[in-house]
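Entry for adenosine monophosphate complex. Fields follow.
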Amino acid sequence: MTTFESLGLSAPLLRALANEGYTVPTPIQAKAIPHVLAGRDLFGCAQTGTGKTAAFALPLIERMLADRRQPAPRRCRTLVLAPTRELAGQIHDSFRAYGRHAGLKAAVIYGGVSQRPQAAALMRGVDVVIATPGRLLDLVGQRLVDIRAVEFLVLDEADRMLDMGFIHDMKRIVAMLPADRQTLFFSATLPAEVRQLADSMLRDPLEVKTTPQSTPAETVSQSVFFLPKSEKRAKLVQLLREEAMGRVIVFTRTKHGADKLHRDLDKAGIASAAIHGNKSQNQRERALAAFKSPRPPVLIATDIAARGIDVDHVSHVVNFELPHEPETYVHRIGRTGRAGQTGSAVSFCDPEERSRLVAIERLLRMSIPQRNAPPTGPIPEPQPAGNRSRPPRGRRSGRPQGGRRQGESRHPRESHRSAKPAARPAAGTATATLARKPKKKHRRAL
Ligand code: AMP
């Protein structure tokens, strides 16, 4: 059997993987890691949920460790481009988790928030920059970051970047990088433009394809309630009281939402525990231990915190809010119906979330049974800043793929200053050392 040791990873990474609870590499990790370690370019056709982030982050951390250097101000060695702030934040979290014993530094850069903490982080010098294309180009233009010495480039969700009109930005960025670099290119789908782009950027790449893991276990029965946001708490309390729910995970999109729900359930006399990125390791461990006990509290979790929760006999998953990414829904409901058990997934869908539900149903290729009548009226288009799910086919605007409407801002997804990213470090904590160090003001130790 393939193990992480046999793939050639060293002790700091193996320790971090043990902390994450990963025991066996996923197929894409088993295939990709040795080749990336050997310096080869990679073309990966893989969706979220296949373990692709670790497939590129682990070997790249290893390569940087093998040739340790003090990061120069404004420069980075690894550049990861991602289409959305959410994905960039998740990749940053993964680098931090996998590199926690490695002592490397990473920064995440995206639009819609002040650039100041991001620029300050870059000024101090980092090993890894994870960026959305628009904000990166803005910072390059202001000479706040210098990408001319990048050794490792990752393009994640390239198809989505093309869909979002980032083709020219990507080409401009790639043109600034040294030709002598290692490039890892990931896409969930393979339209002709993606192929062309990959061909123009990769040198003799290893091609890895993984089968999508988007089919939820047949043992999970799914249903959805349509209701306004303001009624979600009362409905949850009612379900928890009236339905025989044994071990329940409730997913919220934000840490704040998780804490608030925890307080509300407390007031209703229902035992619960919240886990999210702001909780200490101790608090998380205590919450998980309680959740595994015979009389578990309701576990309220954000998606990122829920990674690594591997508990059998979860009877119910409640999607208190629907996720932006349809694949995340599949992950969430996969927490139940494990180990030969049956499980239920109940989702709450408010009017603003209907387009997310459509995206989920499209991914699942099924409609989710409704527990009450949906409101009539048109399904709202996804919100530009808040909603990252792709609108359902046929509902997209009439603009050509990759094009822009006249007068539209260059980076429509990054131009909303008021929008807050979910479940990720705040603007002031845009950088993090990957090592365990005492907390400093702008650096978050793990
Ligand atoms: P990704 O496809 O990179 O978004 O990863 C999907 C999920 O799988 C994340 O929650 C990861 O933490 C988790 N994951 C990645 N690799 C492994 C592994 N080898 N074992 C267990 N979980 C993993």
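NOTE: Residues 52-66 form the longest helix (15 residues).
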